């Protein structure tokens, strides 16, 4: 398919999804520096918050180095061209957080629900739209249900006022034809003025390929993470995706070399471990498990002596959804008890 | 033995499950079911059980309150109409048990503060939220041993057990629960998270309670307190079970629970709904005991 001349918007996740591998400890100064680098590289939209979105600061998901408000107030005034977005998961964050983020100057709010539960987003989406924000509905773990079901949920979010709908491959499980089927159906059935987006994880190394499939099927917003800084094996690496887009003639407005300098000079040095496809992140993509569970499973392995891979597989079998981080220690404890290990 | 007569407002899933529980009570007798829809299945079911019914809302009940001796009413409608329902019935000396998130009256979590409420002759008590009923006893079990600086609860419920009202206003759940976790649980600060899981077969309600203690946790005392509290809750919710923990890590104390319902009208996995109707029944029974013993006398409240 010839995609030459198609314009898309790249949305960078490194300062939000990237909080997961950093255990939410990216400092305010690091955020500011990286965001300025991305801005200078021409990235038009950058997400900034706790990894689990506004209000994510918790025992369950981890307490961040600074509050959402501190991060947003530090980053937004420094932006020359880029706009800043915030993520909100109903059940974790509330409309109060949305108001705070808007007051800080975010232009985009992304309201995320599990792919079958769109109707919990009504109050947040309708409020964001009423406030004149670019309002995105974000359907997570979208591999778990067929395209027709995704469409039903997307139509709900569209009816609440979302002007952009995302198919979110939170587990990095999808293959290109899964992406095409979902994005294609949404493009076909949603209002022509509703934008479609895709958020990938690189757990099966499909981030870039899936994102290209999404563009082919009609998506015009694509999430990447500079340096791949995201949960699991990371998100679609922004700089690699942009390079591929350039080769194909898809216009992103992002400078490949500047973005790859940000990845190399600003992001690589702050990593606690290399973000790559190891046996555990591979398991996420292979078994369809929420990518942010990775570090929790590794910590449970250390404490309870059950391998992270086994824990992740068990969570997959139990069909755990995003936000159920508490069930990781619980599963490890139960498995350790069954095996009569001492730490249980 | 004499029983206290009760009315249920709202013939939906919660109201009907409540009806099943009240019919078993030795202290309570359900006599009225109040709805707004003449074709409601819940009203038809209540009639089969011999209750009087009205499809005219609380206004249909008001003229009969005195003649039928109704003393306690349960409101299982919505926060929007609760205030009016409560005002009209309190004016006739009927005590209200509020299962909506309206929370006009004080929060009631039976094993923690029910006795205090009965002693204060409250005319309206609020049952917080399902997540609150399931988790606040565990926060209290830690805070009665030592100071809790922060308590956070994660309630995971099956998609099928979450009705349209909760979905439309999920912030009300997070805010109300967080407030009650602090206020009734006894923590300086509270946070609540709700997760809805669509797995089939539906999962039984799961609750995780994290407490951060001010000083190093007194492990043995906390364990004892947690087990005692679970036994208290099991008196009215037999399927309230400890799955794992308490886990101690630094100042973190985490308890993992499962709440299985009785399966009266609602399926067993909907422990979140069962714990609401069971807590409301338990609350009414405590007030009924006081009324029957002559220690409590309900009087009309001026509107």
Describe this protein's structure.
Chain A has an 8-stranded parallel beta barrel, surrounded by 7 helices. Chain A has helices at residues 28-40, 68-75, 95-104, 122-130, 147-160, 176-189, 207-217, 238-248, 256-267, 279-287, 294-304, 308-317, 326-338; strands spanning 9-12, 45-47, 83-88, 108-114, 134-140, 164-168, 195-199, 221-224. In chain A, helix 1 links the parallel strand 1 and strand 2 (45-47). Chain A has 2 domains: 9-270, Aldolase class I (TIM Barrel); 279-338, Helicase, Ruva Protein, domain 3. Chain A starts with 8 loop residues before the first strand and ends in a 6-residue tail after the last helix. Chain A has 13 helices and 8 strands. In chain A, helix 1 (28-40) runs antiparallel to helix 9 (256-267) and helix 10 (279-287) runs parallel beside helix 12 (308-317). Chain B is α/β, with parallel strands linked by helices and 303 residues long. Chain B has 2 domains: 4-127 and 277-292, NAD(P)-binding Rossmann-like Domain (Rossmann fold, 3-Layer(aba) Sandwich), CATH 3.40.50.720; 130-269, Dihydrodipicolinate Reductase, domain 2, CATH 3.30.360. In chain B, helix 1 links the parallel strand 1 and strand 2. Chain B is globular, with a radius of gyration of 19 Å. The two termini of chain B are 33 Å apart. The interface between A and B is medium-sized, with 30 and 34 residues.
């Amino acid at each position: 398919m010839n995609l030459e001349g198609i314009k898309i918007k790249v949305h960078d996740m490194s300062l939000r999804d990237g909080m997961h591998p950093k255990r939410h400890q990216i400092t305010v100064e690091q955020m500011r520096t990286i965001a300025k680098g991305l801005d200078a590289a021409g990235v038009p939209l950058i997400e900034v918050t706790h990894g689990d979105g506004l209000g994510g600061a918790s025992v369950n998901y981890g307490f961040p180095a600074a509050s959402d408000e501190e991060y947003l107030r530090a980053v937004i005034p420094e932006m020359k061209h880029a706009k800043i977005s915030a993520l909100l998961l109903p059940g974790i964050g509330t409309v109060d957080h949305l108001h705070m983020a808007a007051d800080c100057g975010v232009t985009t709010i992304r309201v995320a629900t599990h792919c079958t539960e769109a109707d919990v987003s009504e109050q947040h989406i309708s409020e964001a739209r009423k406030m004149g924000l670019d309002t995105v509905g974000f359907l997570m773990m979208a591999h778990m249900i067929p395209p027709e079901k995704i469409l039903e949920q997307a139509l709900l979010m569209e009816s609440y006022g979302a002007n952009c709908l995302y198919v979110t491959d939170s587990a990095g499980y999808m293959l290109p034809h899964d992406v095409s089927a979902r994005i294609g159906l949404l493009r076909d059935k949603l209002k022509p003025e509703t934008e479609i987006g895709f958020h990938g994880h690189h757990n099966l190394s499909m981030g870039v390929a899936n994102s290209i499939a999404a563009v082919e099927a009609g998506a015009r917003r694509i999430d990447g993470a500079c340096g791949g800084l995201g949960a699991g094996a990371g998100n679609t690496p922004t700089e690699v995706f942009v390079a591929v887009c350039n080769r194909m003639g898809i216009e992103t407005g992002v400078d490949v070399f500047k973005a790859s300098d940000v990845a190399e000079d600003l992001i690589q040095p702050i990593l606690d471990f290399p973000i790559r496809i190891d046996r555990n992140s591979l398991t996420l993509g292979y078994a369809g498990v929420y990518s942010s569970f990775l570090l929790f499973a590794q910590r449970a392995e250390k404490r309870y002596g059950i391998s992270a891979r086994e824990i992740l597989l068990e969570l997959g079998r139990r069909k755990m959804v995003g936000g159920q981080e508490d069930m990781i220690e619980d599963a490890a404890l139960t498995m350790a008890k069954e095996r009569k290990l001492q730490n249980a | 033995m004499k029983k206290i007569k009760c009315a249920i407002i709202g013939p939906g899933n919660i109201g009907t499950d409540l009806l099943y529980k009240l019919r078993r009570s030795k202290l309570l007798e359900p006599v009225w079911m109040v709805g707004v829809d003449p074709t409601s299945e819940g009203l038809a079911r209540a009639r089969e059980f011999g209750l009087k019914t009205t499809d005219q809302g609380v206004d249909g009940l008001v003229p009969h309150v005195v003649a039928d001796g109704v003393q306690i009413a349960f409101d299982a409608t919505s926060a929007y109409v609760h205030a009016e329902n409560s005002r009209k019935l309190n004016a006739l000396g009927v005590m209200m048990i509020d299962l909506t998130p309206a929370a006009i009256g004080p929060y009631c979590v039976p094993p923690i503060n029910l006795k205090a409420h009965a002693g204060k002759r409250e005319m309206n008590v609020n049952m917080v939220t399902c997540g609150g009923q399931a988790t606040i006893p565990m926060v209290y079990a830690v805070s009665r041993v030592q100071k809790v600086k922060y308590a956070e609860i994660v309630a995971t419920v099956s998609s099928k057990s979450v009705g349209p009202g909760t979905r439309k206003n999920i912030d009300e759940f997070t805010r109300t629960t967080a407030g009650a976790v602090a206020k009734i649980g006894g923590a300086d600060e509270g946070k609540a998270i709700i997760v809805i899981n669509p797995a089939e077969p539906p999962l039984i309600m799961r609750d995780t309670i994290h407490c951060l203690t001010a000083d190093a946790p007194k492990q043995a005392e906390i364990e004892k307190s947690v087990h005692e509290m679970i036994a208290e809750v099991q008196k009215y919710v037999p399927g309230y079970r400890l799955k794992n923990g308490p886990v101690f890590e630094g100042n973190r104390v985490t308890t993992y629970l499962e709440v299985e319902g009785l399966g009266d009208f609602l399926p067993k996995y909907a422990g979140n709904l069962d714990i609401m109707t069971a807590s409301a029944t338990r609350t009414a029974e405590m007030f009924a005991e006081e009324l029957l013993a002559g220690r409590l006398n309900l009087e009309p409240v001026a509107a």
